[in-house]
Design goal:
Length: 181
């Protein structure tokens, strides 16, 4: 067992735990259900992405799923349906998920690159490195670092598990986006 395998496995487990906490939060709080459920799905999907055995989710399924989520929340933002800030974050996070699937799976239909976030040498689109994808990945890295800090400081409450899951998920998204550079 290599250090990379242990690292990827640990990040996969952390992602899965954050995903489960956020799915549970969605079930417990109907007013926050759509955004928490979207975040929970992201955590579960990232668990697959970090998995050292390979991502069980085919890239096409991940791309389609998160494109639909991004579109649905973008409509909510445009219609100014509350909470707009939370919906805006889900749009950004869903775009990041699409970017991860496109660049780290090469946009293909198969699942499988083991621990692809940790092993990526740069954002490849159709097998070639893309400077646009690299710039977007860097911008998203900065955004998720900021969001992890913001979630931890401003939103901490007596129910610590949900804010902690958001901090973990944003931190892991920053790691994964940085891994795409």
């Amino acid at each position: 067992m290599t250090v990379a395998t242990v690292w990827s496995g640990s990040l996969a487990l952390l992602s899965l735990c954050a995903g489960v906490v956020l799915v549970a939060a969605a079930l417990a709080h109907p007013d926050e259900r759509p955004a928490q459920l979207a975040h929970g799905v992201m955590g579960l999907a990232m668990g697959g992405m970090f998995c050292p055995l390979g991502d069980p989710v085919p890239a096409a399924v991940g791309i389609l799923t998160f494109a639909v989520i991004a579109g649905w929340f973008a409509v909510r933002v445009l219609r100014r349906q509350p909470p707009v800030a939370q919906a805006g974050h889900v749009v950004v996070a869903s775009v990041a998920m699409v970017l991860m699937y496109v660049t780290q799976h090469g946009g293909g239909s198969g699942g499988g690159h083991a621990g692809h976030a940790a092993a990526s040498a740069g954002p490849a689109v159709d097998g070639t490195e893309s400077p646009v994808a690299m710039a977007l990945a860097l911008a998203l890295t900065g955004y998720f670092v900021w969001h992890a800090w913001d979630s931890g400081i401003r939103r901490w409450s007596t129910v610590w598990s949900v804010p902690a899951a958001h901090v973990v998920l944003s931190g892991l998204m920053a790691v994964m986006c940085l891994g795409a550079v």
